[in-house]
């Protein structure tokens, strides 16, 4: 009989999900901001395919609705940082937040990508296609470990190839910026509108 001395989980990838309470009025205001921005600017091309991506740092806006999401994003990043590290107080570091708005109409999606140079990335869901089945509007995260395919035979969740789910309106998710992810095409006539952001830490000078 063996005597177990230690069991560790190495190199885990955290992902955290929050719900922003009482978000109906907030989301209505954000949709109005989105419509105004799209009317004034054609956007930029990043990972978006067939959709619109705002330019500049959205969190520099003075709009109360956008500032509320900025505050929620900051709180979420601080929370997940505390969960993964007990050695550093994240509030002792300088945090930079950079955000943009995405709109995916029918057929729009976001190609696989990461967010180099940041520590955390996140998404807040302003509107989401209301579907009962299919992949429309889903976000998919891919295993960053390259030598894992032969481990799939064990059918363990920690060795899965990908994680796919459809966040709901009012949900905010945060994940490591190195994690490859993409958004499935929107197969509905309802727009998928999100606010995405990056968070980067630096030690104070």
Describe this structure in words.
The protein has 205 residues and is of the alpha+beta class. It has a single domain (18-202), classed as Sandwich (Jelly Rolls). It is built from 2 helices and 11 strands. It has a 6-stranded antiparallel beta sheet with strand order 1-9-6-11-4-3. Strands 2-5-10-7-8 form a 5-stranded antiparallel beta sheet, with no helix packed on it. It is globular, with a radius of gyration of 18 Å. It starts with 15 loop residues before the first strand and ends with a strand.
Describe the strand arrangement of the main beta sheet, using strand numbers.
1-9-6-11-4-3
Instruction: Label the CATH architecture.
Output: Sandwich
**Anisotropy-based shape:** globular
Order of helices and strands: EHEEHEEEEEEEE
Write the layout of secondary structure elements.
Blueprint: E1 16-19, H1 24-40, E2 48-49, E3 52-53, H2 64-84, E4 94-104, E5 109-113, E6 120-127, E7 139-142, E8 162-165, E9 171-176, E10 181-183, E11 192-202
Antiparallel strand pairs: 1-9, 2-5, 3-4, 4-11, 5-10, 6-9, 6-11, 7-8, 7-10
In summary, what is this structure?
The chain has 205 residues and is α+β, with helices and mostly antiparallel strands.
For this entry, give a set of tags.
205 residues; alpha+beta
